[in-house]
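Re: export button greyed out
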Amino acid sequence: MSTRVGVVTFPGSLDDGDAARAVRLAGADAVGLWHADPDLHGVDAVVLPGGFSYGDYLRGGAIARFAPVMETIAEAVRDGLPVLGICNGFQILCEAHILPGALIRNQHMHFRARDQRLRIEAVQPVWTNAFTDSQEVVIPIKHGEGRYVADEHTLDELEANGQIVARYVGGNPNGAQRDIAAISNAAGNVVGIMPHPEHAVDALTGPSTDGLGFFTSMLKFLAGAPADQGAS
Amino acid sequence: MTTQPEVADVVVGEFDGGPDTVQRAAATPEELQPYAELGLRDDEYERIREVLGRRPTQSELAMYSIMWSEHCSYKSSKVHLRQFGEKAPPSDKLLAGIGENAGVIQITDDLAVTFKVESHNHPSYVEPYQGAATGVGGIVRDILAMGARPVAVMDPLRFGAADHEDTARVLPGVVGGIGGYGNSLGLPNIGGEVVFDPCYQGNPLVNALCLGVLPVDRLQNKAAAGPGNIVVLMGAKTGRDGIGGVSVLASATFDSESEQRRPSVQVGDPFMEKLLIEACLELYDDRRVVGIQDLGGAGLTCALTETAAAAGTGMTVELDKVPLREPSMAPHEILASESQERMLLIVEPDQLEAVLKTAARWGVLATAIGEVTPPGPDGLPGRVTITWQGHTVVDVPPGSLADDGPVYARPMREPADLILLQADRAETLPRPSTPDAVRETVLRMVASPNLCDKTWVTEQYDRYVLGNTVLAQPEDAGVIRIDERSGLGVALSVDGNGRYARLDPYTGAKLALAESYRNVAVTGAKPVAVTNCLNFGSPEDPAVMWQFAEAVRGLADGCAELGIPVTGGNVSFYNQTGAAAIHPTPVVGVLGVLDDVTQRVPMGFPKPANPEGDIIFLLGETSVELSGSEWAWVAHEHLGGVPPRVDLARERALAGLLAEAARVGHLTAAHDLSDGGLAQVLVEACLRHGVGAQIKLPEDFTGGSMPFVFLFSESAGRAMVSVPHGHEKAFTGLCTEHRVRWTALGVTDESGGQLEVRDQFTIGLDELREAHTATLPRLFGG
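Workaround output, generated via the alternate export path:
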């Protein structure tokens, strides 16, 4: 049976279809999860997609963290469930304190969309095993609140633990501290990333296919993992 | 607008505290009403009294004044717009045409697309962010109302001088609003225009286009069919936004003038619109609605009367049931409100519960507010009656508002200055005639506001969401895949040139059509349909009316010659401040079909090119045509003469050639020539992927100022293509077959890193890029 990856739809989620497509292109089944339904339907991993959940009128992700589905995800994360939060998904993970730090308004105050160069800083077992250390990739960014901030102690800790997954290179697009584009939790099963790997999975529609690596990494990890691990 | 306080004083407050009812209107026939303040003429008011057989109530007067306004009734444009239908080529692919919310074109047995462009000019000047944002929201609901999922947007924008201080207020707000709304809806922005000209200083043009896709059997219509069916209002609550001039009606106790200054720009909530989209699509798929109409200009008034008129039915509506943001709203305010993010649904009674449930699942308010009633026993259409607190405040034949508004054949007169303007030809201006001067001109032109890189703007738009964007700006056309399995897609471009239209509106409209058509054709797509947004000054000015009539005639003739129909559009009049009107600005959108989007042709020279480079060809003929050109404006601030000739038979031949060449794989790049001529196209094609080019001028363009003419003339019907080695013979053979003239220009050169025009100049790509990209960040900040 092929791997089942849940993609959560909150009201205002926009890239849920793209995330599901990326999951399928990587070779897994995409399973739609609904914000109001706490049941994860036995999925092996979860993607929190980009968008403006609940309009993001307060702060990106500030309301979504209270969705019933997030309570279940927070629990499952502790048992090792692989979770990838993309853009708004990253914001939600920070608001839910599953990841440290916060994402605030871009320094230049504009929404910015561009094809962004990144350097993979941590080749971890769950979400980045398909990459090589310091590999440069091109993945689109598109956000108004993508500036990663945390206190110095947290930043030092992220560095020391190898939790900084990717940094911006060739220009920091939002003023993020230490050029941080993606981080993981200490266990490495949860990654939050501001750029959109799901928009870089097909040369026809994206600037590269570099984003596919995140999804294939997770599938490879699950294929090697014991049968029960990761499921809720 | 002047106000007559004594009129306003009479209207309100003289009856028993309740609203102005039908009964009361019949009993007080001589009561004075402020129809003139609401923009109605004496004879129009008389006609309303005739239609009703009494004076209108306060609510009815508000309804007639907005439905008979220029914006809603097209009263000045109708007599001209008829040509679009009359001259259109017959088509069995047009599932819905002019008069519907948007035109729908069937492109396979199962799939159809719908697209339309609309203006939101005036609100965007008053409040740039919200004006532009709600412009996007409005056109998206038009597309949604046809049964389609909106899949992309485009925005043709026109501003005053780039360095004018007010442009620094308007442009960032407009761009922010378009991005803020479109990005939050999850719609890729795939193209548009950013044009600067002093004529738009007090009247920026903010046009918005939306593309939608639907299964053929999901097509919706707006008819309120089926007496007994329920009228449901779904979406945002109704507030006092966007009421505009109507508020004069309630001005008994307020100072009339302060009341008129009340903000009349609507405020958008893209999150609500996103929920509305998903809820509507779910209702369509579950076959829950009989009819649907979006609420835009004229709000409930328009939606109620148009849906009833379309079916010939009547309707009873209880206004008390409309959910309000402000409970103190009077009935005429509820009817006139232009609050955003609302749809009107016609639902069979046994489906009502399911409809309300779907709405609730998406967190959208849905409320039954009325019922469809039968046509009259005499065979006449039904009536729309509206009650408020138990009183009947409206009782009208809906057709009299929706369809039978006034129609005017307004006086027209060629602008008095046109003969002199046309005599003042740019071809007589001094031209650069030395290699150094041509080199300097290239650098100056690519940095000029209209020709410079627009990344500062487009970087604020999401182009990737939905995962089907195959081409987006700065490409000539946006290309969206609409079927992942077959690779079927559509190409879309939207273009206008106010300067050409100022010099000759008939030819200018045809040139806008030709450019849009060509932009679609260079991607390899087959153009199939046209939409338009006609931006003009005041129709009460005979010179403006003449420009309008000429432009419509040109566009209708052009579409007939190209064999593609106009499927819908929008007219925006009164784009003028005092006596100064904008240049007549017909903006034309063309939609084309690509059977396989993997065969689309992009505009930049590709990398990696083969070591010998690809061969660059110019297609079409170049003449000395500089009047109305970007060069004449940038170098001499000159506007005069006649615009380039337009030959639509040649455009058709060129499009046929490009489609076939793309299909058989002869093309690695193709780029349309328009503003800025060949020089602009070469620079853009080189900079796209950092690939240089070596160009040799044809012999008849080598002496004196002829190199300049070859590089900057804006002759129509041209495109530049690059062809891989080994394909050139087959390609030129194809050109001959399609009767398209070709000129071999040179080769692409990946390693050189420069644009070289032999015997003229060499410019490094870095220097070109610096010149091309620095302008907007310098003007509007980094």
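Residues 227-232 of chain A have pLDDT under 50 and may be disordered. The button fix ships in the next patch.
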